[in-house]
Amino acid sequence: MFCKNCGKEISDVADFCTACGVAKGKGENFCSNCGASITPGAAVCLNCGCAVSKPESEKSKIIAGVLAILVGSLGIHSFYLGYTKKGIIQLVLSLALSWTFVAPLGVGIWAIVDAVNIFMGKMFDADGKPLKD
Ligand SMILES: [Zn+2]
Ligand SMILES: [Zn+2]
Question: Which ligand sits nearest to residue 2's alpha carbon?
C-alpha cells in the first residue's frame, strides 16, 4: 500500500510511513491503493477508481447519540459535534419557548431524529468526517 500523506510505498507490516513518519492510513493527499495524488474532496481515486476513505472524526457515535437522546433538547449533541449554531438554536428554542410545550417537544423530536441519524452513520461532525464507532 501507499502512504496517504506523501504517496511513498510503505510495507504492509509497517505502522508508520518511513518517508514522512505519518501513521499508516492517515492523510488524504494520496490514494493508499495506487499512490496517485487525490483531488481534495474527491470520493474516489481518479487513477484506480478505489474509494477514498475520509479520515474518521475524533467524535464518537455512541457519545453523540446518547447526548442526543438524554440532553438533545438542549442541543448538547450539536455542540459536541461542532454544530454550534444548530446547538444554540435548539437550546434557545427549548429554554425560551419552554412555556409553550410545543417548542421543547419539537426540539426533542428533532434530537431523536438526530440520534437515529447519528447511530445509522448518516450524520457527520461539523468538518464532514464520519463519526467513529
Ligand atoms: Zn508518507
Ligand atoms: Zn488509486
Answer: 1
> Helical H runs in 38-126?
61-71, 76-81, 84-96, 102-119
Starting from the CA of residue 51, give the closest ligand.
Answer: 2
Grade residue 100 by pLDDT with cuts at 50, 70 and 90: confident
Number of residues that this document lists for the chain? 133
- Domain definitions of the chain by residue range: 1-55, 61-119
Residue 126 alpha carbon to ligand 1 centre in Å? 27
The confidence score (pLDDT) of residue 54 equals 66
Separation between Cα atoms, residue 116 and residue 67, nearest integer Å: 12
3 state DSSP class of 19:
coil
CA–CA gap between residue 123 and residue 49 (Å, rounded): 25
In this structure, which residues have their CB less than 5 angstroms from ion ligand 2? 31, 33-34, 36, 45, 47-48, 50
- Please give the distance, rounded to the nearest whole angstrom, from the Cα atom of residue 22 to the centre of ligand 2: 19
Model confidence over 16-64: pLDDT tens digits? 999 999 998 888 899 999 999 988 777 789 899 988 866 788 999 999 9
User: Global pTM?
Assistant: 0.63
